[in-house]
Amino acid sequence: MAGLVPPLGIASSTPGEDSLTTASKVTRAWEAFATGEDITSDVRPDILASWYRCRDQYEVDPSLDAAPPAPGYHDQGPDNDVIFTQLGGLGALAGRDVELDGGVVAVTDGSGRILGTWGDPSARRRAELSNMAPWSSWSEQCTGTNGMGTSFEVTGPVTVTGAEHWCEGFHQWACAGIAIRDVVTGSAIASINISRWGAKLSPEVPGWLQKAASCIEQEVHRRAVDEAKRVCTAFKREHTDHSGPLVALDRGGQVVAANDAALSMLHLPADAPASRGAMEPAERSRPDIAELSDVVRWAAGRAAQNPQWSGYAQLGVAGDGAVPATLRPITEAGRVVGMLCAFGLQEGEPYGRAGEGTAVPMPPRVIGVRNDRLVLLAPSEVRYAEADRNTVWLSTDRGRILAATRGLDHVDQALSRHGFRRVHRRFLVNLRRVAEVERGTKGELFLVTDPRVPELVPVSRRHAPEIRRLLGV
Q: Which residues does the UniProt record annotate as the domain HTH LytTR-type (predicted)?
């Protein structure tokens, strides 16, 4: 591993006049924002988006000067032991590299709980005054904008310098972090962070973090392929005795294997990767079934306590309406690596959504990013949202804008009370902005939100009946 990641140097030159001016602007912006003002300039978009989360969503006290203890013990499970071991090795190597530069290296788990720190002893003692030490929580929800917690909210490395930290007690620190993500679910597994007190970090640090993350993610990818082999083996044992639609899913609800009946039901081509076993995560398809990911998470949680567990849910399948589906876990060494999903069967524990029907508090604005500037939008300005994997693009009256929030599910949750509806696995539409409805030659349904713009939003067959009802067509 030492040969794959070059030595890390974090020393930076003395800041010039422009850098000091920028820092002063950020400090003034933080002072205004922390007292309740809304701002759109002088702060980098990813930092400003984090400030909005910290102030309006998480309600983190900006006067905080120490991270709180991690809430309880989060067991990451034996499957992540190898990843944490490799991260610890990288942290120790980097800590040795930065010791003379007054740096501290920290590794956290996926909840932002620090697992270990390395580096300059005096800097580590200073960091401990802010509770930058093992078993403290550095998620944004607990400790505001910082390299560890904010890395979970963005793609790639993130730097947080001086007053860019949401909490005033950390304004003397500069830090940079990157999240290690599960290639199957997209959720954060861990993070690695570099910090320095009273000085900036070298511009080389984000590149080093990217290389470090790539090294760890090779192990994450290898594990995902290995899990798929176990899932396919379980599927082959089961499908010979099952005549109905049968699907093998990974932990994220994506299709690893499917029989012919399931391929037809899910409208996948006969030669889709799932027909032979989709070993590579990038090859796997996600069915256009709105609740499937939630149901798989629910099933995995139940199965973690009892490997013999089974349960069922009513799933909306395009062309078939609500179809019962029974899920049974696929386990390896006591951990859940996937699910067998048999459509048409109704066995075991029924699925029930906790908190169904409760109102979700809505933000007063939609936050987007364009040209290194944060854009504050009224929900009525957004015509529709389109997902490109976890990246979401907003089509608005001000043009096409990148959403500050990752994942269409999260955008859907934030906008559903403003008249937005999911019409496709990749599209969310503001029904108040639908001006025209177009029918395809084969009965397909398309929505037009602005007749002046040649854009058609497809409606999947599963969502079409509800959209017709809501639009009165």
A: 367-473
Torsions phi, psi of 124, nearest 5?
-65, -40
Tell me which of 265 and 288 has the higher pLDDT.
265
Residue whose token pair is 């942290």: 91
Instruction: Please tell me whether the overall predicted TM-score, pTM, comes out greater than 0.85 for this model.
Output: no
Residue whose C-alpha is closest to residue 405's, from 364, 457, 373, 366: 366
**What is the enclosing helix (H) or strand (E) of 351?**
none
What's the mean pLDDT when you consider all of the chain?
87
Query: What sign does the CA torsion over 296, 298, 299, 305 have?
Result: positive
Is 2.40.50.1020 the CATH number for 366-471?
yes
Number of H helices, E strands in the chain: 11, 21
pLDDT tens digits, one per residue of 252-265: 999 999 999 999 99
> What distance in Å separates the CA atoms of residue 305 and residue 311, rounded to the nearest whole number?
13
* Separation between Cα atoms, residue 222 and residue 280, nearest integer Å: 10
Cα separation of 95 and 365, whole Å?
42
Distance CA 117, CA 91 (A): 7
- Which CATH class for the 17-222 domain? alpha beta
Nearest CA to 350 out of 324, 323, 331, 320 is that of: 324
Domain spans of the chain, in order of start: 17-222, 242-350, 366-471
Strand intervals (E) in 182-225: 188-197
Per CATH, 17-222 and 242-350 having the same topology is answered: yes
Question: Which tokens is 159 given?
Answer: 């730097």
